[in-house]
Amino acid sequence: MLSTMAASELAALRAVYEPLTQSVRKLIDVTIRTQADAATATAAKDAIDRVTDELGTTLLEGSFGVQHTSDGQPMVWGNVVMGLRNPAAPPLIVHHEPDGRVWSDVVLGAAYEGPAGHVHGGVCAMLLDHVLGATAHKPGQPAVTGTLTTRYRRGTRLGCPLRLEAHVDRVEGVKTFAVGRITDPEGVTVEADGIFIHPR
Amino acid sequence: MLSTMAASELAALRAVYEPLTQSVRKLIDVTIRTQADAATATAAKDAIDRVTDELGTTLLEGSFGVQHTSDGQPMVWGNVVMGLRNPAAPPLIVHHEPDGRVWSDVVLGAAYEGPAGHVHGGVCAMLLDHVLGATAHKPGQPAVTGTLTTRYRRGTRLGCPLRLEAHVDRVEGVKTFAVGRITDPEGVTVEADGIFIHPR
Fold first, then answer.
1. Has the ipTM of the complex gone over 0.90?
2. Which residues form the domain of A156?
3. Where is the signal peptide, in residue numbers (chains A, B) (predicted)?
């Protein structure tokens, strides 16, 4: 449970950085899809460089990492899959059910393309790694991937509602064996199983 | 071999869109790492939205797909791993050796984070999918992933020179069995094997 202080601190930080990140996500999409002429593209580049200079005067060293509110709540906001401050993240919103099942709904756009009109197979693997791994995570006890196997049944389309889901098959000591899949409105596109490890 | 026309057409398109994309890549990085105050973040958001509106007046429908120069050279510039017009792509530059080996050198920054200071395990899987798959690609005969297994030996650090490499283990009919790995200066961090299929 969040303390009142942490909750208002999180809300304040989120109000500053989430709209900025969402705007950069839209910019990524149009950067891929624009047919702008050279003059427009150059003017856009120059405007972006000015924003980057402005934001860059106060940078964290290295990467976002895991930061904490003043009373210790973790923020994994730089994460490439779920980070609300990472414009390259969809971001995935991961739901945990009381019975241990984990799921997430997402629509992936032009930024996630592999084969024309389809999600890159590697993106499917990336998102499944995250969702299967989430079945093994416990507060203060992150799990790391030991092995992940993805089996592709057919192409996963861009711009289509996708459900990612996973559950624990069994636990053996520090190892959690998880299984999961991606489905679109026509059924399963990718299946996965993985072993996730709580480092001793 | 590129015709002269295709080569100059590609160079012209690249000169327009590659600098723009590179600028958006830098913007992604600072968006994650900035400690800008609310006023600065809001001004940045507004400036970005203006650029997005400008670039968005001439959008391709859907996604970039595979486009072609006037004489048929393919451009996979929207690809999430190697697309030179995709700001979310590192982008990976994939080298093919005459003996069939495939390799790529890359340094991954804050945008690819999973565990603090480390590359997300799912990103490792995504990049290995791409590099292993590249061993099976032939001009006009793309291969799709059938199965991919990644085994994590230890964490892969952000900001560190990484080598991705893959080769064909064997070919059985439409199936190419490939193996590969990621190494950093201290050795192997992730190993992978996969089956890639040429659709009949």
1. yes
2. 93-197
3. none
